[in-house]
Amino acid sequence: MKLYKKLFTAIVCSSVLTTPLAIADDYPEKPVTMIVAYSPGGGNDTVARLMAKHIEPYLGARMVVENASGAGGQIGFTRLAKADNDGYTLGLLSSPSIFMIEMLRKNVAFTLDDFQAIANIQSDPILLAVNAKSDYQSFEDFSKKVENNAGSINVSGDGPQSNVHLQAAALEDALSLDINFVSYSGSGPSATALLGNEVEAALLTTSSALAFIESGRIRPLAIFSPERHPALKEVPTIEEASGTDVTDIGTAIRGVASPVGVSKERIAHLETAFESLLKDKDFVKATQNLGIELTYQNSEAFEATLKSSRDGTKRYIDLMK
Description:
By secondary structure, the chain is of the alpha/beta class.
């Protein structure tokens, strides 16, 4: 009889101890926040809001996008790094921008070690564009004008110290050009400046520029990519346009991450949700319509990509100093 009492007591105690843990792991029980470190209308914001629209069936909860723009992404990345590691705050890491912030600024409150990679989503190359009413009909027209007016041709882009700014510096270095790079808080404001004739050209992420291209408001001159973009097959690569091999170091690699320390179970759930999302027919069709090139990687592969991108950024970072 005493043995039965001991067994009963052990079972009850075990139930009491394990029940709260089981409830705690019933994830997610509320909406998940996705931090975008840039302003509305840009490439990061576009892909984040598209994911939020389609991911709920796979995530098991709504995803809410919050823009935390400023300081070239530093504010948003810092907020993500310092967020609770409970799986309810995620963010888009944009490489190489995040590494440039770390390498070029003092007292930055994060490093790559502060983030847990979950899934890579997109690869978004930079393109050079002009207002559709501009006299520039080709990259050659633009480069000749820059050569004859060194330092005085205004070109807008994300910045300062962003992936777009790095691409501008790499362009100048490879072709011995001298443009006047004008920083804006995101691709959206940069495109607006181009449309308002505040600048003569703009360096824009492909995803943020496509709608303006399709509406006939801006004209792309070249894309910084080894191959032509599937949504812009008529636009030459920068090598085709210039006859010179120009690095595509500014290509935005966008993937989902969390603060470090989220449980393996929750990371696995998130990884599966984003993998399923990138197989969703409606999501894929929507991304294709917006010129978004999906490049899914799981958490392990994405982590390796981030480390490789960080190494590549180091090789060109002196161009920004």
